[in-house]
Amino acid sequence: MAFTKIFAATLLASGLVSAAPTQTIRATPSTTVSLTGVTHSVTAGLGGLNFSPDNVVAEIGDIVEWHFLPANHTVAQSSFAEPCKPLTGNTGFFPGFSFSTKENQAPQVFQIVVENKKPIWYYCPQTTGNHCQKGMVGVINQNFDNQLFSLARHRQLAANTTVSIVPPLFRVALLSPTPTLTEDSKTLHHGIAFSSSSLERNRA
């Protein structure tokens, strides 16, 4: 967790990641979650087809936030066994291709609130260039006690996948310019779902 904070601070100092995004897209929580006030920043596309850091340890109520560098990355929830495929029944998060940028960081960020300690696997479903198969995957709260389900093994499975699937549905909440919580700014409630084809951009 300390590594995540240091990494985010380094990115902010370098100017690659903005501290004040103009638009925040957040996945819809399934329950009422008390926020901890901790945000973990993950950057997509820093130095290649990867998420940095790609292995985050977060507590319940923490926020994980993705920042996007060129050219056209996104993030979708998957399972360990099927790294480049969305969760069955479209139950995972996917903000669409909303972060295309030719240079510098995209003005939008994507957030999820950690609701439990179960591992959350995710990938970039950009099919142009086979981002997932080339290693653009990540995890939140990996089970470090079982290396059969490690990020390294997950990445090997992704490399052996023949196709990457773009989720057909968006599962997000759109909040602009910054997230709006309850009055005490500590609790995020269910019921802020926002899905729209306007979130999609050209995948190429």
Could you characterize what this model shows?
The protein is of the alpha/beta class and 204 residues long. It has a single domain, classed as Immunoglobulin-like (Sandwich). Helix content is 11%, strand content 22%. The chain contains 2 helices and 12 strands; from the N terminus they run αββββββββββαββ. It has helices at 2-14, 151-159; strands at 23-26, 33-34, 39-44, 51-52, 55-56, 63-68, 76-78, 108-113, 120-123, 137-140, 173-175, 187-188. A 6-stranded mixed sheet has the order 4-3-6-8-1-11. Strands 5-10-9-7 form a 4-stranded mixed sheet, with helices on one face. Strand 3 (39-44) and strand 4 (51-52) form a beta hairpin. The termini are far apart. Mean pLDDT is 77; it is low at 1-20 and 173-202.
In short:
The chain is an alpha/beta fold and 204 residues long.
Summarize the helices and strands and which ones pair or pack:
Elements: H1 2-14, E1 23-26, E2 33-34, E3 39-44, E4 51-52, E5 55-56, E6 63-68, E7 76-78, E8 108-113, E9 120-123, E10 137-140, H2 151-159, E11 173-175, E12 187-188
Parallel strand pairs: 1-8, 3-6, 5-10
Antiparallel strand pairs: 1-11, 2-12, 3-4, 6-8, 7-9, 9-10
